[in-house]
Structures are given as structure tokens and as C-alpha cells.
What does this fold into?
Amino acid sequence: MKITLVVVGKLKDKFLVDGVAEYLKRLQKFTRVEVREVPECRTLDEEGQRILSLVPQNSWLCVLDVVGVELTSEDFAKKISALTLDGVSNLTFAIGGAFGLSDELRLAADFRLSLSQMTLTHQMARLVLVEQVYRAFKINRHEPYHW
It folds into this structure.
């Protein structure tokens, strides 16, 4: 499975840059991950169109959405495993900017995921997401990490 992250903006804080880099490095053992960054835009519609333009063709699209479905780490791992068993070879996660997601992007999504009921910056969400994707691979391989 190839994973693509389509995200708004560049990471600014060193601790976020370092954290994301660490989990992307760890994920190399399990899968290919590509990060595609979209510059912040003036409108949600423009941002949504730019995000959608970077989603690989035939990719299963999961958007991070404040009103999306919350999953435990174990259920998230099961979701990724089920997608693999269903033959999904390209999985894309999209993270909008500070003002959320366009309606077009929400409608295009195959799944809308909420990381928490708490508010996270879109940059912090990137770190949490890559850590949870790594955790999912470890869980699915029955390898120690999450307990």
C-alpha cells in the first residue's frame, strides 16, 4: 500500500518537523509515504480544489474532519487492514488548513476521520496522524509498540 498525505502549509515548529520526520522514517519499514503540501489559500474552495488536484488517481481518500468518525487506535488499524484486504493500494489522507475543509473535499472523501473531540492545529494533526498510521502498522503486525 502506498500512502499519500496531502496537507495545507509547511510545518513551522522544529519539534513538529522532527516528529513527523521520525514517524515517516519509521513507516518506511512498512509502506511508501509521500507528503504533498498545498500552500494556504484565501478561500476554503480554492484550498479544497488544490488538495483534490494532488490526490492520486484511484486513491481511497480519508479527510481529517472535526465532525468525522472517531476511532480507537485498534479500530483505525482494523480500518487500514480491511482496506488492504479489499485491494486498496493507494490511500490518501488529506488535512485542511486552519479554517477546515471545503464542502467539495468533504463530499469527495471515502471516509471522514476525527482525531479527537479536542481542537488540534492542522500542523499538530499531521504529527498525530503519522504517529497513528505507524501505530496501526505495528498493531496489524502484532509488534510491540502501543502497549
In short: The chain has one domain: 2-140.
